[in-house]
Fold this protein.
Amino acid sequence: MTAPACIAAVGRGLKTFAGDVAEGFFEITHNGLALVGVVVVLAAALLLARPDLRQQGEDRLSAWLTARQVAALGITPELGAIERATAANPKDLPREQANVALWIARKYRVAPEPVAALVAEAYEVGAANRIDPKLVLAVMAIESSFNPFAQSPVGAQGLMQVMTHIHADKYELFGGHYAAFDPKTNLRVGVKVLGEYITRAGSVEAGLKWYVGAANLPSDGGYADKVLAEHARLAQVARGKAIPLNDSAPLRATAPEPAAPAAPTTPVKVATLS
């Protein structure tokens, strides 16, 4: 056999070998993919038939993903934490409430989002209890400067500085006395207490005197005047009037009349900031 013929024969052999290898690889791959498909179908059927196994698998996968995130970030993620946030977008509020929220945020140097949620809550709870919501916010301003963790030397706690141990029965409706440090709960309890004192005393001014604990004293130390002055500022802000943040002039407005019950409104969506 001549050299060219030998080379041609070797080439045909290599070509045949390569074709056989490729065909075998395709066959193995095809069979392997088919096997994987069968396994996937069987696994899916098993998970559908056994919800408990599916739940276990989801829990393990979630735990694994959480462990990876903790390792990467150094903190434990908790996606549901947003549900505990007291916050709202001021842009979602009616104009009057937005005016009040933004002014309070600037004056008291607190974030506008939690203030927006508190303003919306004050308007809703105030209307339900026939109390001007701006009076509620004025009490909050004088009592705690919108610090939800404030505590006085005598034990008044939270935004509205409610005497927690005296009004423990009201906090039981919210799970116990620690609820005093939940901003919305403290607001609701504070409004209830304020409403009771106004009704008992017969006027807003006298009710404020009871609220500050000076019912049996000759003077409340100017407390009612401070609250009503802040209420007057908030009333002007609500109407769109520009009030300086450092305005401390002793405004003296007529005590607000009880608010008429408001028609049900769509609640402001909380904790969806844009």
